[in-house]
Amino acid sequence: MTDIVALRRANAKRWADAKLTRNFAAMAKSLVCAKPRYQTVEAKTGVPWFVVAVIHERESSQNWFASLAQGDPWNKASVHVPAGRGPFRSWEDAAIDALANCAPRAARNKDWSIGGALTELEQYNGLGYASRGVPSPYLWSGTNQYKSGKYVRDGVYDTKVVDSQPGCAGLLLAMMALDRTISFDGTMPSVVAPSAPNPRPSGTQKPPPPSIRNPARGSIGDFVVSVLSAVFKRKLP
Fold this sequence. Notes:
Blueprint: H1 4-17, H2 25-33, H3 35-45, H4 49-60, H5 91-101, E1 112-113, H6 114-125, H7 128-132, H8 137-140, E2 150-153, E3 156-158, H9 168-176, E4 185-186, H10 220-232
Antiparallel strand pairs: 1-4, 2-3
């Protein structure tokens, strides 16, 4: 059985050392542009939108007609594992089902640190690579943490095959270069309320109206005060 705690540490270490070896900029831009749709799923499941996004790319090349669970059409019952899911009314409904009701049930995960997020993604694909002690291409393809090795079908591992799909970690690195709100501190980025507008600079503010009791020297008010003072032989307080 795979030690999940140890795998989280290993994935966090790989992340710290990871560098892209392929250009994922175009894919990352497309995923970031779809942020509002992924946030709809995040709101229902608690799974960070950017985690939803990279699963979508990895499972179906961001095909909006394919389920997040395994890439089958979401408007029909799925035939690949997990089989028998659906049909659903929308891509979002299928995605929520995949995250809430299908292994590894990512909606139940509470650890969204980088080690926790990457390990949740690895479990989404399966722990066959972790059991071999090798980096999963599902995560690390397209980075310096992966060279070769792939399960070409269930139970069949070929050390020479190189995964041509983008790895989730590589996609996240590319997305972070475009969207600085993506965070792996273990919590979701908070929505920052717009700050109150700055007050008008003092140099552009209108001067306050002159006080009636203290009129400006030389003004009509000053003349009236002087006349009244002469009449009553006293100054106004």
